[in-house]
Amino acid sequence: MRYSRAPLLAVPFLAMTACSMGLRPAEVVGGSTLSSVRKGDTGPTVVFEAGIGDNLSSWAPVFDDVASFARAFAYSRSGYAGGAPWALGHPSRTADDIARDAHELFRKTGLGRPMILVGHSMGGMYVLRYAELYPEDVAGVVLFDGRLKGFTEECEEAGLSPCSPPIAAQL
């Protein structure tokens, strides 16, 4: 059996990307340590929420461009590259948990409001939930290949498969 070295190369690449984006000191939120990057000092605040299995480094290709006209901010959720696993005693994470942690992180880092939230894939579900819980903080939402509320139910009712997110997304 042959093994690829690609996974071994991915970790240093992610670390280098995060450093080039301006990794900030980690913040403790909800018992977990969250890493973030922030760049730009003019215009609206644009917050990037990665999809399932991704972290703040996934936004590297667009981060500097957005920071040229806005205050760009990206972070890694608990359990993702630089974000320490969530606190013991909390075996599952819901969109509400993630939105509350994000709210606390944004408060601790002094992000300007209102914000434009950008979510990819499952991150879309998280930014939509954030907007529901904290509408006064949100100027707009942008979804990239976003998973919308009710998708699983509508998919199953239509007799399609697979409809549920991966097990990791349900944690």
Question: How would you portray this structure in words?
Answer:
It is a single chain. The strands form two sheets. The chain has a five-stranded mixed β-sheet with strand order 3-5-4-6-7, with helices on both faces. It has a two-stranded antiparallel ribbon with strand order 1-2. The longest helix has 16 residues, at 6-21. Helix 4 (122-133) links the parallel strand 6 and strand 7 (138-144). 36% of the residues are buried. It is globular, with a radius of gyration of 16 Å. The chain is an alpha/beta fold and 171 residues long. Mean pLDDT is 78; it is low at 1-19, 86-90 and 167-171. It has six helices and seven strands; from the N terminus they run H-E-E-E-E-H-E-H-E-H-E-H-H.
